[in-house]
Amino acid sequence: MSELWRLMLLVTISASAVTFMGSAAIWFIDEDRRIRRSLRHVLKGAPETVIIARGRGRGAGFNFSTNQAAVAWDSGAWCLIYRIDELMGAELAVDGQVIGRVFRGEQRRAIDQIVQQAAQVTLKLIFDDPRHPDFELDLWLDGDQARRETRSPADAIQEANRWLLRADAIVRRPLAPKAQLQPARPSRPLAEPEIARPVPAPSPKPYQPAHEAVAATTTAPLFDEIDTTADPIEAPWDDDLDEPPLVMDKPYKPVSKATPRPPKGDQDELPFDLED
């Protein structure tokens, strides 16, 4: 009997543990909680306002303390961060027809009709980003009435209307002046590479007349005076052409140092003795 109670106790404890672990897993992987965790992580804090498209894995949240907005899809697996001042407007469409609109620089178009039944209710957030300019949230689709958490199209339109009012309050704020980006400066000045530059040629000396150059020198002049008034066309040696040519007193006669040879008739005797 004691063995049976022990077995039943173990089975009860195991079933309770499995149930608790299953409930914790369901709670942890819940779509709303996953999206809120992702938004809190990327916004560096809990967002003040959150809107979630249940069953589509999409959501959006604003954190006014950090001045950031974030959108999430795929149940929070992907997120995109914007600045709140990048929100340009929002639109509310019911069955493809826009019934409410807020845009920066325009007057708000309020919802002027009450819709009780609709097949689709979509809220579109418009941002000043060329790559991701808008983000759509399908708050109600035909067939959501079969879900466990029942909502009506009127509830979805009412929630979207609150976000239109919130977007209108944001776009009516004046934009803060954007800080001008200053060029980054290096911590150390970069050393300029050494480039072999050609040595400049010496500049030519100015022209100096001859008499000034002679007067500036410290050595004795070659001539006593230089006539600067003479005509350069006339040759300085023209005056010596009128003088008579130089005449020699005695005519020049060449003198030979060779000894004259005696005539052939006087060569009877040899100049040496053959017997010797």
Describe the structure.
The chain has 276 residues and is α+β, with helices and mostly antiparallel strands. Helices cover 24% and strands 20% of the residues. It is built from 4 helices and 8 strands. The chain has a 4-stranded antiparallel beta sheet with strand order 1-2-3-4, covered by helices on one side. A 4-stranded antiparallel beta sheet has the order 6-5-7-8, covered by helices on one side.
What order do the helices and strands come in, and which of them pair?
Blueprint: H1 2-28, H2 31-42, E1 49-53, E2 58-63, E3 68-73, E4 78-83, E5 87-94, E6 97-103, E7 120-127, E8 134-141, H3 153-171, H4 210-216
Structural class: alpha+beta
Radius of gyration: 59 Å
Main β sheet profile: 4 strands, antiparallel
Give the amount of beta strand, in percent. 15-25%
Side-by-side strand order of the widest sheet: 1-2-3-4
Specify the overall morphology: elongated
- What is the helix/strand order? HHEEEEEEEEHH
- Kindly state the mean pLDDT as a whole number? 76
Helix content: 10-25%
Task: Enumerate the spans where pLDDT stays under 50 for 5 or more consecutive residues.
Answer: none
